[in-house]
Amino acid sequence: MGIAQREVSVAGTLCRLMSAGLVGLSLGIAPAVASPNGVPVTANAGMGTGDVGPGDAAPSSARATGGIDGAGNSAPLTTPLPPAAAPAYAPAATPRASAPSTVASPVRGGVDSAGDGAAPAAAQVNPPPVQPAPAQTATPAPATPAPATPPSAPQPVEAADPLAPVGEAIAALIATPEAVTTSKKEQEALAAFYGARQNMPVFVSDTGLDVRGKAVIARLDAAGEDGLDPSDYQVPLPKRGATAADLARTELKIAVAAMTYARHAQAGRFDPGRISSLVTPVRDIPDPTAALTKVAYAPDANAALAAFNPPHAGYKALKAQLARANGSAPTIPAIPPGPQVKPGASDPRMPTLRARLGVTERPGNDLVYDPTLVDAVKAFQESAKIKPTGIIGPQTLAALNVGATGGGGSLRNDVIANMERWRWLPRDLGEKNVMVNIPEFMVRINQDGRVIHETRVVVGKPETPTPLLTREMQYIVVNPAWNIPPSIARNEMMPLLRSDPGALARRGIQVVRNGSGGYSFRQDPGERNALGRIKFMFPNDHSVYLHDTPSKALFQNDRRAYSHGCVRVYEPLKFGEVIFDMGLPGDTWSEQRIAKMFGGSERYINLKQRFPVHIVYFNAFVDGSGRLVMREDLYGINAATKTFLGLDGKQRIADSATPKTAPRAR
Known about the structure:
Elements: H1 3-19, H2 61-64, H3 164-174, H4 184-196, H5 211-221, H6 244-267, H7 288-297, H8 301-306, H9 313-325, H10 350-357, H11 371-383, H12 394-400, H13 411-422, E1 432-437, E2 442-447, E3 450-460, E4 469-478, E5 482-483, H14 486-499, H15 503-506, E6 509-513, E7 519-523, E8 534-537, E9 546-547, E10 561-563, E11 567-569, H16 572-583, H17 591-595, E12 603-616, E13 620-622, E14 628-630, H18 637-645
Parallel strand pairs: 1-12, 3-10, 9-11
Antiparallel strand pairs: 1-2, 2-3, 3-11, 4-8, 4-12, 5-7, 6-7, 8-9, 13-14
Helix pairs in contact: 3-6, 4-7, 5-6, 6-7, 9-13, 13-18
């Protein structure tokens, strides 16, 4: 075809298209075909770009060069446009109502349900049919380059955690925990606690101690308020500009100090069994991990740490006495120990005794225990609730030396030693409980925090001491037989039998040959029975119990240490009435009902409700009137406690790590 003919053909084609409304007078103007939402579907029709809307990504090159209808049926009328850049974040597509025209299948792209990153292809709408033009050999249009991959959305940059280096240093230190603490349990506690926190600190910040760390340090520094030694919990504070490693070391030292304080405050600083095998209290030793967690997450770390100290009223009363004694120099002279002094006797301690009681009148011989001094001693004994005999014995001396120095220490040290022994008891003494205080020679029955009955007791001799323990009262035996323990049989019965063959028979004691070829001794129930008419049983490893006795006169003495270890109770019917009421609630018990069971064979009565029996050793305590009372250190347990704590001026031998012996089961 010639050039002229070709131009005529092109012109004719354009005329037909313009007549059909498909091409405007200007090639840049195209008739819009409305979509259901009012946005032209073919906004760029006639521009050589295919049906690409203003917000759509460019289609593939094959469709981008499709000429007038985008299907490649005619030569392009314009130079192809570069592909539209995809937005950084593709907006969610608004669903379109289906048009009557045919819509091409979308190309996966954009951020769709599959999460792909390419933009979707625009919908293709077929224009109204036109007459086909004569076949033309179209020159292939240059291919439109494929759209570039949209840039990834910028991700927010997290600020570096300033405590991260401290956490890394903590992890490194815990990797070799023996360098932090020698206690295996504390090593395990550190690993568990900080492992749960991804090794992040709780007591330090990136610049030094945080608020919680300062609160813990404040309690450790105030440990003396509770009779503890602040030097046991010293933590060097980090200096200005401390490194992450320095802060990590401080963090772990505070953690170890807190666990040590919790153990000392709640369970004591050494195993009481080191004093004697007869010292067997039940202690509540706190779990190190639980203790550290409690302090770390409590609203008040100072108060949480202080709460590990005993909650008992007796402990708190001694703590108040310690506050009065701290910082004040005692001015009361101590009266040295020595033999008993009776009125009229001569003793070198009399001048000191006069100074202690403020007696200014002196006899011709200053060493004589004269009537004026005897009257002063009787008045003192009465005020101290000691029988006013005027005889100066161990009980009177102990009371006279309250607040004095000399003879093994000061009032302050005695108070601290007794506070320590409160830590040997369970934190929960029981809503109902029985408590025997050996140095006081008294037993009390407590209910709901108040004393409902108290009476005198006889305890073990110093050579056969009553053990310290906590066990449950379980049953009562009326008309008990006495199966004599082997130690008593060996040390007392056999020598008596050799010297007087009829002595045991006169006491109602039978000698029975046992299966092992040896002999056992048994005393039948009766008035002469050493256990009296009733005994109160709380099974224990020491085979001791509370019981009646035929030796009633011994209760009139101030110093009542005569037994082989068991505890003899004064007026056992009154005591028993309260025990029966607590252990058998709902029943009606009286002294008369109990007494009617006396006589005959043994009778066992099991208690429906059990309650603990605590045998304790407090030779310093505060009485009901708020007065500090001192008693004789009958078994030397107070002196031993002071020795272990280093309160007697000697080297301290108390534990500083986890106790070597486990707490005994109840």
